[in-house]
Amino acid sequence: MAELLPDTLIDVPTETRYHQLADRLAAAIRRGTLLPGSRLPSVRRSAETHRVSINTVVAAYRRLEDRGLIEARPQSGFYVCNALPVLESRVEEFSPAAEPSNDVLALIDTVFAAQLNPAYTNISLACPQTTDFYPGGKLGRIMSSLLRRQPQLIGQYALPPGSLHLRQQIARRSMALGMMLEPTDITLTHGCMEALQLALRVTTKPGDSVGLETPTYFYLLPLLASLGLKAVEIPTDPQDGLSLDALELLLNEKRLHAVIAMPTAQNPMGFTMPLAAKKRLAKLMNDHQVPLIEDGLYAEIQFGPTLSPAVKSFDTHGWVLFCTSFTKTLAPDFRIGWMAGGRFAEKLRHLKAVSSMSESALLSETLAVFLESGGFDHHLRTLRRRYAAQVDEAKSLIVRYFPQGTRATQPKGGFVFWVDLPPAVDTVRLFEQLLEEKICMTPGTLYSPSGRYRNALRLSCCYPFNARYTEALARVGRRACEISGLPPGIVTQAAE
What we know:
By secondary structure, this protein is of the alpha/beta class. Helices cover 40% and strands 14% of the residues. The chain has helices spanning 14-31, 43-50, 54-66, 102-115, 136-149, 164-173, 191-203, 220-226, 244-252, 275-288, 345-355, 361-373, 375-401, 427-435, 467-484; strands at residues 70-73, 77-80, 121-122, 157-158, 186-189, 209-214, 230-237, 241-242, 258-261, 292-295, 320-325, 337-340, 359-360, 407-408, 416-420, 439-440, 442-443, 456-460. α1 packs across α3 (54-66), α2 (43-50) packs across α3 (54-66) and α13 runs parallel beside α15 (467-484).
């Protein structure tokens, strides 16, 4: 029988004890401390160990059942469910520097059009679609108060680098990711995509080659194409991230003019690079004097008890440009992002001025007040807990409905993860079939400039897990079983 961690929850408020007990057990299951098939301590014993009520333990166990992590067996107790097999490291070759293929770009347009169609059930768009994921009411009240007290805000331009108040709050918060920034280091942008675009424009010129993780965030591909840049796919481990040996070889051969990477809670795989790897990555870029554009969009939605620092925090000579926004965590429609440009900061401010000029003074001040109040920290704690739970729930549905041989990554944060289906499943064909049922998912080929990963897909867990979403995910699994000819459900260790 597995032993629980001995520390108690006695000092935790009663209404959150069962959440924290469930999260602690979920973390132990992900680490492998509690193995698939192992029995959990009885409800009474857990209550004694953690010095909480039996009702608290029952609520925690029910929460873990809902997440698909444990199951109740009649007359026996609670057991850890068989886990979805982990996607293992794979050997991948370098791709030659080339513009993203036209087939991939056309498929991106098709998927994007389906994602925006309200008639479709969407399990692919990486943007929460309901208001309960955001503190809209609080932001609205702050905005109304600001307009009453400072009506002049609506008639002002917040010229680059943008609102000083918000930049001060961003600089303060950046310390949680290990960065020591001054407000003068920061430029506000129109979302993270503009930050990435400005970073590319200031560090490259048409015809240059840019290193990318593979798979990578798919909207980088049309961005590179629009700037006349070539992509080089760098082998990327599903658990540890960018292959630094491969990157070093490319840097030594002077084949890269810049690199874009998402080292923390990567989209689409969800990995976070180990700390030593982040340090080495920063050193490589500084030693070779090649810019690293670090996409930190999900860096504050990490599931662990402490935040892994940004690569930017190890930047010694300003060769790392950190880009992020508040669109995934606070207010998508505000479209407020920011970047710390290192040695390129002054050029970025000038480029921002001729690109889109300014961000909204009113929206910037609204965010600044919310950050200053401490409301963001409370919101993030809730968001992290919810996304961790929903990723677990999605995996339990995959275990139940997807064909045998399916594997997935183990995300360390964010709300997306990567699923490898059996080789017989062509996910482009699967995508086309599901469109007929008004279900939208994203095939793996979107995430590779050369169209790799034909049997993979990315799942997004930023939707309410209602009957519509869960049935759509189940339908994806059933269709994949039909294509592959394989039955649903994982193969247990005993069967293997």
